[in-house]
TrEMBL record:
UniProt xrefs under SMART domains: RHOD
Purpose of the protein: Catalyzes oxygen-dependent 5-hydroxyuridine (ho5U) modification at position 34 in tRNAs.
Gene designation per UniProt: trhO
Source lineage: Bacteria, Pseudomonadati, Bacteroidota, Cytophagia, Cytophagales
Protein name: tRNA uridine(34) hydroxylase
CDD domains assigned: RHOD_YceA
Protein family: Belongs to the TrhO family.
Length: 328
């Protein structure tokens, strides 16, 4: 396959936030990298796609900055771009948690490589904790994992009180790529949990390096694939079609943009409901055309890749920063 999809994050202090956001954005434009990237004073978080050679340039670019030299990329192959455009945003956090006081560089759970996680997960005194949102863990999760009723990761801190009875256990946290666990595991330690671990590289790396054993269902991803296979050892479907209730791990975003729920819908119901999750959504006047995938690309008419630059509209000045020296 000609394209790669990259998933990565790096906690590192960024003082020149606005200038770096512009520089990073411009590099992506000039190298045909597309996707979603968050730049914060606490680091980077991104999912991007591009031709393999362009992705190699991008990874080298990120790692050439000493602040991000130890960034670990999860690399997957794909037959096309997984995104239609590039979006680089400056935000308060690289993943919204409300735990701004936690610096994973200073405090976090013990990292477990995929094979270490696989060897430890079935021990008697171990609890596996999913820190993702409902629609993610309903599609797929580790066998016997504790799953919290949360709609967003920012709800996680308020739910930790429900886990108080597990404080003396070994708690193994996991998420899609590892970024949420950095703060989730640190927060558990802060709340008095004694022995906390995290799956380094998340579900994606576990599938690549440990065969995905005992991960049941599919893993929700934040690109146009929506869901990916993980388990090559003992796969199992755990989700059900939102419409008819039959077993289905086919993820769909409801065709009604005002709903846009992320739910499993089998292929038959997908066509019958025209990509909608209910009759109400099926008859919604703004319902999007259904093409069988359940992914709806945002309208890119009038898309300006330079939109959002802090130093706008003088893009030539930004280019001189990029080409004149490696980092502003």
């Amino acid at each position: 396959m000609e394209y790669n999809i990259l998933l990565y994050y790096c906690y590192a202090r960024i003082d020149d936030l606005e200038a770096y956001r512009d520089e990073h954005h411009l590099f992506c434009i000039e190298n045909n990298i597309r996707g979603r990237i968050i730049v914060s004073s606490e680091g980077l978080n991104g999912t991007v796609s591009g031709l393999k050679e362009d992705c190699e340039k991008y990874m080298a670019y990120v790692k050439s900055d000493p602040r991000f030299a130890d960034t670990e990329f999860k690399v997957d192959e794909h037959h096309e771009h997984a995104f239609a455009k590039i979006n680089v945003r400056a935000k308060d956090e690289i993943v919204h948690s409300g735990l701004k006081h936690i610096n994973p560089r200073l405090k976090t759970g013990k990292h477990l490589e995929p094979e270490e996680f696989r060897a430890l997960k079935d021990e008697e005194d171990v609890v596996i904790l999913d820190v993702r949102s409902n629609y993610e863990h309903e599609l797929g999760h580790f066998k016997n994992a504790v799953r919290l009723d949360i709609d967003n990761f920012r709800d996680f801190p308020a739910k930790v009180s429900e886990l108080a009875h597990l404080k003396e256990k070994k708690v193994l946290t996991y998420c899609t790529g590892g970024i949420k666990c950095e703060k989730a595991s640190a927060f558990l330690l802060e709340q008095g949990f004694k022995d906390v671990y995290q799956l380094h590289g998340g579900i994606i790396k576990y599938g690549m390096e440990a065969g995905g054993e005992d991960f049941e269902g599919k893993c929700y991803v934040f690109d146009n694939r929506l869901a990916v296979e993980v388990n090559q050892v003992n796969p199992k479907i755990v989700s059900k079609c939102f419409v008819c209730g039959t077993a289905s791990d086919r993820m769909v975003n409801c065709a009604n943009p005002d709903c846009n729920e992320h739910v499993p819908i089998c292929e038959s119901c997908g066509w019958e409901m025209e990509g909608a999750c209910s009759e109400v959504c099926k008859t919604h006047p703004q319902k999007r055309p259904y093409n069988g995938t359940g992914y709806y690309q945002k309208n890119t008419n009038g898309y300006n890749p330079y939109k959002g630059f802090y130093q706008k509209p003088n893009a030539s000045k930004i280019k001189s920063v990029l080409h004149g020296k490696t980092h502003p």
